[in-house]
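Reopening this ticket.

The earlier resolution said the output was attached, but the attachment link was broken on my side. Pasting everything inline this time so it's all in one place.
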Amino acid sequence: MRKVMIVFVALMLFTAPAIGAGIEDVERITPAELKAKLDRGDNVLIIDVRSSGAYAASSVKLPGDVRIAPDEIIGRVGEIPMGAEIVTYCT
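Inline output:
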């Protein structure tokens, strides 16, 4: 099973069921912890799960993130590299 970390609690309702993990399998991560992982060069994939409209209207974008809306995760699971820690976020 892939390890999933969530920046915001509300995302657990969208992402955990979509990828087959239960709520008890989801860990939270703070922005500082994510930065430390990125600074160390850990294998982390950041997924922006905002809707297309929210994404387009926002100036907040993390370098290197991939935007996959919650309702697209199952159809795009092949784009998620095996072995990467997955961090989802929204604003």
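Reporter confirms the inline version is readable. The chain has three helices and five strands. The mean pLDDT is 77.
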